[in-house]
Amino acid sequence: EEMKEFIVLTLLLLCFIADGVVAGPNPMHLHLMSDKVSDGVVCLDGSPAGFYFAGANDPSSSTRWQIYFQGGGWCYDEMDCWGRSKGSLGSSTKWGNVSEIGGLMDSDCSVNPSFCTWNRVHIGYCDGNSFSGNRDDPITVNGDKIFFRGKRIIDATLKTLMSSFGLADATHVMLTGCSAGGLATYLHADYVHGVLQSSVPSLQVFKAVSISGFFLLHNTVEGKPVYPSEMAYIYQLANSTNGLNSNCVNSKPDFLQWQCNFAQESYQHIQSPFFVLNSALDSWQTGCIYTSEYVPSNSTDNGHCAAAPGWNSCSSDPDKCTSDQMKRFVSYERDFTATLQAIPTFTKAGNGAFVYSCHTHCAGQSSAFNKFAINNVTMQQAITNWWNSDANTQASTNTHMPCYYSDTASPYDCNPSCGGHMQEKNLSPADMHTIGMNHCT
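-> structure tokens emitted (441 positions)
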């Protein structure tokens, strides 16, 4: 039962369905790009791709934009992607008419005072591989055609926003996203920046913030390359070569180009100002990377998270770990920070980071946005300070790093602001709305 609860919570956390979400003061409304279907701008099932939009609610913000990549995990093979095509993460036919996202994308100025009045865009996620697929011909599974067109969705969204919604007059643009959308922020930051630089003469500032998108290229506790194998397969299946950071792809031999589907590889090549917002002991990663198992062939199961023998309870709540298990988790946490800090981009002037220890996922779009703190600086304050800094500001000025969990006795957590890890299962209904936990199918 605990394993089922963890997997359900994980899937719910990764979904964001707008239908029925309690709207804030300026909710975003759905725009389906039905006119672009003939150009191949479609979801996995062939339905039209789309986005949610809310215009600036203050004239002084009319040229300021947030563009958000929705998250929701990935599909890893033909059967998994076929199964995904039947739900909201593979078909726009399941989407609602309104979206409201919390934290960094909140339109409530008491929560998000720095960006609450901006134009906001939520790009619907329905391509299965962080908006990177660009396969011309669909595959056929169980008689159904499955399309991989994430790159075309980005292009069509930007084109539509520029031609019909005012993005052509933008002066300030923040690109962001959470989970698989956070990974998309790494993969596509420079591409989106390039498109806007060439098409929007008024553009003055472009920066990117990834929320919980730095997924490690890491084996399981048993030494199995489960997640790397899954991501390598969807890279090939979706034909993502030309949908990733081109400098990363060009730096690798053909047989290693799939690694550019990972943040730690693309981040090395990102030129745009970039802010990393991530837990070093991310709750999705502990279950679905570090303690996962392979899925049997011909299954529509979307990963077997927290399935490593003896790790189910621990993966969902570190306080249920033994001391020996916690040593392994601390090792993962240290692997995370070491991997991040070894990348030159991390210390490049104009960049920043808020890397915390709380065992959560996508906390930057929950009430934790104003609660989690490092040395008395909250996520909200850290991002605002970075955004207001210029390109010459040393990265260390806007970098906040985590403490490490204890591995001796429970409670293991080291940051009081985490509030007992703020486990997703203990989030308030408001937080569930904010993260998008409550309308997944």
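The longest helix spans residues 180-199.
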